[in-house]
Amino acid sequence: MMKYLLTFGLMITLLSAQAQASQALYPGEIPNYIDGPNVESSATTGGILRISNVSNPVYTLYLAPESGNAKKPMVIIFPGGGYRILAASHEGSDIARKLNEIGVHAMVVHYRLPDSTRQVEKQYAPLQDAQQAIRVARQQANAWNVDSTKIGVMGFSAGGHLAASAATHHSIDYTKMNDGQNLRPDFQLLIYPVVSFRAYSHQGSVSSLLGKNKSEELLHLFSNEEQVNANTPRAFLVHASDDGAVSVANSLNYAAALANNKVLVDLHIMAKGGHGFGLVNKSTDEYWFDRLATWFKTL
After folding, report:
1. Which helix (H) or strand (E) holds 13?
2. Sheet containing 41-45: which strands, arranged edge to edge?
3. Which CATH architecture has domain 43-296?
4. Any residues with CB less than 8 A from the CB of 63 and at least 6 apart, and which?
5. CA 21, 140, 11, 87 torsion: positive or negative?
6. DSSP letter at 113?
7. Of 256, 254, 183, which is closest to residue 222 (Cα–Cα)?
8. Which of 6, 219, 258, 299 is most buried per CB count within 10 Å?
9. pLDDT band at 6 (very low <50, low <70, confident <90, very high)
10. Residue 72 contacts residue 105 (beta carbons within 8 Å)
11. How confident is the model at residue 212, as a pLDDT?
């Protein structure tokens, strides 16, 4: 009998941590939007789900199993993909489920990919969606049993650039809703992130977001290490020193900027691992997510 009770309890736990159906990120009109056909597509290669041509942003909610009445942190996840595609599984849903295992709620955002045929100013569309995701999380905090003082952003690669942008540009409401909502994330989790749009950046991400004619003003605006101040939220960063796609200098310089502004920062540099390893860096027995789980206890 005990065996069946344990099995039933495990099933209930797993079911309670399942993702809910995707929801439109904006309940009404999407800002900075040009109407057109929905040509979003997806393909799975090498076990990785890649989504292209996102013009109608959505989020998927992953609520951790209930354990008492305590409210839980919420992590808003932005998958990477060079602002060209979204690596939606190993940098999205897989991460959300892992966060649920340590008692952290998550929402995965399929943000708009820059497209001048679908957005008036394509360079602002991802950041608008990131801010809207923070808005939704704060508005729904009570309904989702979220601790409203522990709502943070997480991003991988170009998604890390978006998370860092949300963390450093929160004083301006790029959605122009001007509803007084607090758009500052309480923390930022950046995994092999693009941070700078300068020489050591990932030029594919720069071109996808800004196009070929990149003004000095926009390069400065989206070089997030240049936007840090004392009100930038605390950070947790992971990067491999042999990353050949996104230089580790992105994380090193961002961490330095945070430290210089007396912002709490945890920086974890692995000797090897390359880029895009998601949860598991196969070049080491060290599991970066274990460090993150410990870090959450300090919030």
Report:
1. helix 2-16
2. 41-45, 48-52, 85-87
3. 3-Layer(aba) Sandwich (3.40)
4. 16, 17, 20, 100, 105, 144, 145
5. positive
6. P
7. 254
8. 258
9. very low
10. yes
11. 84
Residue that has been written with the tokens 């502004």 in this structure = 261
Burial of 92 (0-12, 13-18, 19+ CB in 10 A): buried
pLDDT digit string, tens, across residues 129-169:
999 999 999 999 999 999 999 999 999 999 999 999 999 99
Report the 10 Å Cβ neighbour count for 84. Answer: 17
Residue 34 contacts by C-beta under 8 Å, 6 or more apart in sequence?
117, 118, 119, 120
- Phi first, then psi: give them for residue 167, nearest 5 degrees: -75, -25
Give the pLDDT confidence of 237-296 residue by residue, as tens digits: 999 999 999 999 999 999 999 999 999 999 999 999 999 999 999 999 889 999 999 999
209 and 181 Cβ atoms separated by less than 8 Å: no
**What secondary structure, in 3-state letters, does 49-77 show?**
EEEECCCCCEEEEECCCCCCCCCEEEEEE
Q: What is the mean pLDDT of residues 100-117?
A: 98
In the chain, where the domains are located = 43-296
